[in-house]
Amino acid sequence: MPGIVRALRSVEGIHLTSMFTAYPGHAADMVAGITVRDYDVIISLGGDGTINEIVNGLMNSNPFSALPATELPAIAAIPTGSANVLAGALGIPRDPVDAAWYIAGLLRSRTHSTISVGHAADRCFVVNAGIGIDAEVIATMEQLRQNGTRAKAIRYLPAVFTAWNELRANPPQITATVDGKKFGRDLAMAVVSNSNPWTFLGDLPIVTNPTVSLRKGLGFYGFTSLKGVTGLVAAANLAGFFTRLRSPFHVADRERRIDNAQEIQLTATTPLRLQLDGEYIDQRDCLNIRVQQGAINFVARADDHTEAQFTQKVATRPVDERLLIVATKRVIDRTRRLFSTNQKMEATHT
Predict the structure, then answer these.
(1) What digits encode the pLDDT tens for the residues 20-47?
(2) 2-9 and 96-108 are packed helices; what angle lies between their axes, rounded to 10 degrees?
(3) What 3-state DSSP class applies to 80?
């Protein structure tokens, strides 16, 4: 997009090298072995899957044996995917041109934020890992993409309802052990999150762990039963619907939630589908998940979504307030872009 190039080239002294991916995993191959001696920043023009590949390529798929964050290039995310979860969690605008101007400002001020990286199934992840409903939805969308259908937010809804009904009828019975202690058994779903929020539904935040931070440990969310009206209310609550019904239906009694975990083990009675950062991986009946804090730098502000700010502004609000907050942020992002463009034009004229 010309607007993205124009925004990035507004950064004084920047030298851009463009490379295009040609196959799954290509981004990881491109950046493998790269250090700060080669490039200061790697700019990702794509979705969460592209960022996942870049992180895995830079860290050789293992954050525990990778180079320190200070020796690896920072990553700048310009979102063009279907969900763009990490960009949203980092406070980056979802519109790619708005995001490019936002990133350009951060590049000028050399603003970086160091985040944690999760590790599961011999791969890094930065958004979340899940077995259960989210992995079922991702697997369905992968099939649609292979058949030539673009993965838009509205197309996730039928997949969500189908997966939900199947899990209600045949719950997978997941057991979770968190930091060496048994935390839940016979769970119908299990999500391990590194970012907050995460979502299938565009800008509508799905919140499982309101106080999870990209800069700390992992969040775990499980649910003992999806059956009955309580199960439906619980699912709706994650997106901000029917929040006033949470107490009357005793939703909290079925939830298992913990934040800032360092190691999580999930086992299931039968193999279940696994997803990492919105990409379907395979089927597993046992999964060990760990986190390395301070693992990699992103071009982002460290204080865009602190736990207190996010909990107050989004996580505990009903859906209409969440969407209003999203709409307000879009206006702010667009105003910021116009200001940056005008500032560049004035500088050029001078």
Answers:
(1) 999 999 999 999 999 999 999 999 999 9
(2) 10
(3) coil
